[in-house]
Amino acid sequence: MPERPPSGGESEAAGPPRRRSLFGTRYRWWIGGLLFASTVINYVDRQTLSVLAPFLKEEFTWSNQDFALIVIAFRIAYAVMQTVSGRLIDRLGTRRGLSLAVAFYSVSAMLTPLARGLVGFCGFRFLLGAGEAANWPAATKAVAEWFPRRERGWAVALFDSGSSIGAAIAPALVLFLWAAFDSWRPAFVITGSLGFLWLIAWRRSYHPPDTHPRISEEERAMILADRAAEEAENREASKGAGGAVELGTGPPSYASLLRLPQTWGTIASRALTDPVWFMIADWFAIYLVARGYKIEETAAGFWVPFLAADLGNFFGGGFSSWLIQRGWPVGRARKTLIVAGGIGVLALIPAAFATSFVTLLACFAVATFSYASMSTMAISLPADLYQSRAVATVSGMAGTGAGLGTIGSTFLIGVVADRFSFTPILIVASLVPLAAAALVLLLVRNTSESGRGVLKLI
Questions:
Q1: 8 A C-beta contact, residue 134 and residue 101
Q2: CA–centroid distance for 60 within its chain
Q3: Which phi and psi (to 5°) does residue 420 adopt?
Q4: Distance CA 455, CA 147 (A)
Q5: Is 197 domain-assigned?
Q6: What is the pLDDT of residues 123-167, one digit of tens each?
Q7: Beta-carbon count within 10 A of 368 CB
């Protein structure tokens, strides 16, 4: 079988001379591990502010609405750049695109101590959001390039679990740095520098599997065979419908993608669920303080919802992969987990009324576990539905939808928390994922366009 050129930039095709793989037939999982590490660092950088928020609010006399403005500044850049970075990664390639993004947001994080007030923090968080936006489109594209269909759920679970791991690590790491230096400023510099260590491994390790110099020929053949089988299935489906499949060579236009209901279903799956996660990630420390708990005394339990989310990532990815191996269509397996996850997030309702800290943590843990299993499926949809040349673009569009939803929810959280309480916030947050699940069931399905052009069967 002739090898196809990579879908990214020309520089990705060229690599050092081929050497024997040290990973046997599992080099793809080393790539998955690097994507996981990138996500961990991404979240440690963004959670540094959230962990320090109670101290920064006191030092700078910010209200909840003031803090919401800082979060919104991050979200605006993050939302816009999801779509922009997705298209750039489809054009530049995964290796170069993610390298530039990590270098940019690492510098932005390290410069944050230069902020002297609300406007300065908003500016640096805007820059951080612009750089961090590329992580999910790039990682999703890498999964589409490197993993066969039966393993994509696991691969997405692996890299996406980095968000909960990063959020769980951040409190202990940041509070340690704050105590060690008796200042919040070194925490931003030290956590921001982690991205440059990751870049060394990434630049040495990543090339598309078609041309990678260090994977075994057996693993290369397996990846390319699965890709060819997927294309053959779409080709057969197109013939049965009286059409011809068009593989294409470059990213399709936004207009052509937005004409597809599957694109809108993919966007809805993120736009109506990500705000729930960011409500917890950005506001959990402040919520605990509002409920009368001291953040220093609850640090031991702070990580519980984030660990539960990590387990949810792997449950969603693993269970959906198990269903696919048992013969379930990819779409049916993904949507089953999305519906189940939407139901599980309802656990935020009893969390709002819990009087015991242990009960509160347990309810949040059930909700984040359910959210994460649902989110893993939502993040997998672009790789399941679209050819590689469109995966990062669609993932970026979904990320923009998620960002816009999060911006609106963040503003409302600041207003409602100041004027009322967090109780109505948790009740609404528990219900919105059910709407997302309903839209996925309605829009993400095989249509007359499936198996033709850029859209694959699911």
A1: yes
A2: 31
A3: -125, -100
A4: 18
A5: yes
A6: 999 999 999 999 989 998 999 899 988 888 889 889 888 887 887
A7: 31
Considering only 129-138, 226-235, 264-273, 320-329, which range has the smallest mean pLDDT? Answer: 226-235
Q: Note whether 148 and 324 are within 8 A (CB).
A: no
Instruction: Give the Cα separation of 348 and 425 in Å (integer).
Output: 10
For residue 455, the model assigns a pLDDT of 87
CA distance 137 to 399: 8
Cβ atoms of 384 and 254 within 8 Å: the answer is no
- How many domains does the structure of the chain reveal? 1
Which has the closest alpha carbon to 403: 82, 180, 187? 82
| CATH code assigned at 300 | 1.20.1250.20
* pLDDT attached to residue 406: 84
* Torsional sign, CA 170, 392, 319, 342: positive
pLDDT at 143: 92
pTM over 0.85, yes/no:
no
Q: Which two tokens stand for residue 169?
A: 């690590």
Given a contact cutoff of 8 angstroms between Cβ atoms, the answer to whether 17 and 77 are in contact is no
Give the separation between CA 187 and CA 177, rounded to whole angstroms.
Answer: 6
- Domain holding 75, by residue range, is 24-202+254-443
Per residue in 261-319, pLDDT tens? 999 999 999 999 999 988 887 788 788 888 887 766 666 677 788 889 889 988 998 89
- Residues forming a β-bridge with 386: 455
Is 455 contained in some domain?
no
- Quick one: pLDDT band at residue 2, thresholds 50, 70, 90? very low
Residue recorded with tokens 């951080």 = 128
Q: Is residue 13 part of a domain?
A: no
> Residue 233: inside a domain, yes or no?
no
Distance CA 383, CA 362 (A): 33
Pair 411, 296: CB distance under 8 Å: no
pLDDT category at 6 given cuts 50, 70, 90 is very low
CA angle 271, 277, 282 (to 5 degrees): 115
Q: What is the mean pLDDT of the segment spanning 62-67? A: 85
Report yes or no: 351 and 364 within 8 Å, Cβ to Cβ.
yes
Dist CA 151 CA 153 (whole Å): 6
Contacts of 41 (CB under 8 A, 6+ apart): 102, 166, 194, 195, 198
Cα separation, 89 vs 101, whole angstroms: 10
At 13, which helix (H) or strand (E)? Answer: none
